[in-house]
Amino acid sequence: MTGAGRIYRYVGPAEVKAAVRPEGEGRAIRSMADFEGWVVARSAVELAEPFTFVVDLEGVLRLAPRRSEHAACAGSGPVLGAGEIGFQRADGGWVVGEISNHSTGYCPDTSSWTAVARALARVGLRCPSGFTYEVVFRRCLACQEVSIVREDDFVCVFCGNDLPARWNVDPVDLPGDSRQR
């Protein structure tokens, strides 16, 4: 998909990726009919919590139960975005009530919102103007651990060194990746 933005490879624990079954991918949601068919099969308990989502390389939204691994939802492939998403009824239809880029398997930058918003628009789901909860991921250059930056404190929680200002979790370029260094 040309011009899609940064491509995120799975950067989480190897044992999680190794456990992914090819048929265990999240449900592809390409239209409002797909979404409505998927959402009516969800229980009230499930709908009370956010779901796991990814946006695959074709720009398709994929949904899975909340406690699903993002790697499983994506079929262990690279993604354009990943996180958690909650839905609610409003004005006689479904809307995105909450959404984040919280995925410790892919650690997407907040700039992944563009690809996520496109996928939601393609389905016809109204959504906020950005992530309702943004997670800032950075890899420490000293110890190589991935940290979540809290309250703009760019300090590694593992070793105390400063973290880079720019996203750097996966330094490997993929074909079609437009990331800037």
Can you tag this structure with a few keywords?
7 strands; alpha+beta; 5 helices; 5-stranded antiparallel beta sheet; 2 domains; two-stranded antiparallel sheet; 181 residues
Q: Main β-sheet: number of strands, strand sense, barrel status?
A: 5 strands, antiparallel
SSE string, helix = H, strand = E? HEHHEEHEEHEE
Low-confidence stretches: 174-181
Protein structure class: alpha+beta
List the strand order in the largest sheet.
1-3-2-4-5
Helix content: 10-25%
Radius of gyration: 16 Å
N- and C-termini, Cα separation: 21 Å
Number of strands: 7
General form: globular
- In the residues, how many domains can be counted? 2
Bin the strand percentage. Answer: 15-25%
Task: Please count the helical segments.
Answer: 5
Averaged pLDDT:
91
